[in-house]
Amino acid sequence: MKKLYIPLVVLSGLLYVGCSKDFLDVDQTESISTSDLALYNNNEGAKSFVTSIYAKFLDWNMTSFSWNGMTSIASDDADKGSSPGDTGTDKDLMDALTYNASSLSVEEVFLAQYQGINRCNQALYYIPQLDNADADLRARLIGEAKYLRAFMYFNLVRMYGGVPIVDHVPNPSSDADRVMELTRRSKAEVYAFIEQDLIDAIAVLPAKSAYASTEKARASVGAAHALLAKVSLYQQKWQQAIDHCDAVTGYSLAPTYASQYRLSGEFDTESIFEISGVGSAPGKGIQGYSASQGARGAGGWGWGFNTPSQSLVNAYESGDARKDATIIFAGTTLYDGRFVPTTVENPRYNYKAYSSSFTDGWETDVNIKYLRYAEVLLIKAEAMNELGQTSGAISLVNTIRNRAGLGNTTALSQGDVRTAIWKERRLELAFEHDRFFDLVRTGQAQAAFALDGKTFVVGKHELFPIPQKFINESAGLSSQNPGY
Questions:
Q1: How far apart are the C-alpha atoms of 266 and 137, rounded to whole Å?
Q2: Considering the chain, what is the average pLDDT of its residues?
Q3: Which of 21, 73, 155, 161 has a CA between 20 and 30 Å from the CA of residue 431?
């Protein structure tokens, strides 16, 4: 059984991140006494501050139901699923693109990111004060906290556009900090903040290979370069994207696509950054992630939400190994021998959320692979093609296709290769929380959603609404996104 780098108790209630009457307010830790801080003035105490950040990714509001609603169900890769009468609170709205600024998913994901950011800021405030902890360890931990903060801000800027930049633990009595928390910054400012955090992280983070086997889930320098490459891609900084892709070394594609999503494939040679879950005590998994996506009905084991769309099924070429590794089809037998009968309510389910050992558990051993080497190759291919280096891009596309059991691409022109890369991103990264954002950033959204029977309103649906509770509390300091 694998080990998970998540504590059972993190600093007792010290780092609890809650929500008070103000939407982004969180419990402060400024009042820690000198004697309390002394308890953490050692290596393990310093680690605890960063461990609490990783722990946030296991929360229901961070990486589960609402997250799937916004990043997957809202895309053309997935449907709401479940029973027709079970809306999942607002997953029917996410599916139909009729959500609004008061939708639960919109609120939960926004708040969860800031709860995580607050934990990052606490770590960045307290770790430098822990002078009994090893200096190199403290530097590394600060790098991890900045990487994770950049990761969360990247989620926010892709979903909501410009958002408040909260770069330190706010002082409740400071009017300047209140303004900081309630004032949206521009997308350009948020991206610049993300880039600086990642540059700082790159300077101090070790290679993945330098971590002990018990710390495989920690951010590495490769993860920071890979994320900065992706951030560069979204800004069309093509050469910068290539440069950071080239800096991602020590990784290789897994021998088979399907192996990555099984217990034996966790933290494999392709994995750059993934959130880890353990289904058995004392470990913890991502709350409800597997259960909410498991097959529903007679012979099933879950709620049945976030089901693969017919549009996704139709996108696969004959012989593409990624199809059966991504989609559970009713009436088929899974890799562990479990038969999924046709009596389940939906014809398809997300294979990447399936746990063999803890199938119907609330917290399972399923991981989410957020950054893989395959994506680094596709980022580099896209950037190279945009810079006119199309032959080199074709070679990278073929590497991805060949691993999937497909022949080389027939695309030759820059335009055709661009389309081929976008298609490979869809099939390679299906249900890995990128499709909606890829459609928006590449300008494919309106046409792609129309093919899936959804109406994407240009000028509105590129961004999700800022939660109305936040807009109300900002009292004019922030405005809503267009169309909401």
A1: 25
A2: 93
A3: 161
CB count in 10 Å sphere of residue 338:
15
Task: Determine contact, residues 32/14, Cβ cutoff 8 Å.
Answer: yes
Element (H, E) at 79: strand 78-81
Contacts 24+ apart (CB under 8 A), 126-130: 126/29, 126/32, 126/37, 126/40, 126/49, 127/46, 127/49, 127/50, 129/37, 129/41, 130/37, 130/40, 130/41, 130/42, 130/45, 130/46
Question: Residue 36 and residue 41: Cα distance in Å, rounded?
Answer: 9
DSSP 3-state of 339: strand
Alpha carbons 244 and 144: distance in angstroms, whole number = 18
Alpha-carbon distance of 77 to 63, in angstroms, equals 18
CA distance 54 to 217: 9
- In terms of residues, how long is the chain? 484
130 vs 392: CA distance, rounded Å: 48
Q: Provide the β-strand partners of residue 333.
A: 339
Distance, CA of 437 to chain centre: 11
The residues that bridge with 348 in the sheet, in sequence order, are 329
The SS3 call for residue 5 is coil
Cα separation, 118 vs 170, in Å, equals 9
The C-alpha torsion from 59 through 61 and 65 to 68, rounded to 10°, is -100
Which amino acid is it at 338?
R
Name every residue whose Cβ is closer than 8 Å to that of residue 132 and which is 6 or more positions away in sequence: 41, 42
Do 166 and 125 touch, CB atoms closer than 8 A? no
Confidence of residue 429 (pLDDT cuts 50, 70, 90): very high
* Two structure tokens written together for 27: 């419990």
d(CA 469, CA 474): 9
For residue range 168-196, list pLDDT tens digits in order. 999 999 999 999 999 999 999 999 999 99
CB-CB contact of 119 with 56 (8 Å): yes
Residue whose structure tokens are 């294979």: 351
Q: Is the peptide bond before 282 cis (omega within 30 degrees of 0)?
A: yes
CB atoms within 10 A of CB 19: 15
Pairing of strands 332-333, 271-275: unpaired
Tokens in use for 124?
A: 């960045």
pTM of the model: 0.94
User: pLDDT grade, residue 275 (50/70/90)?
Assistant: very high
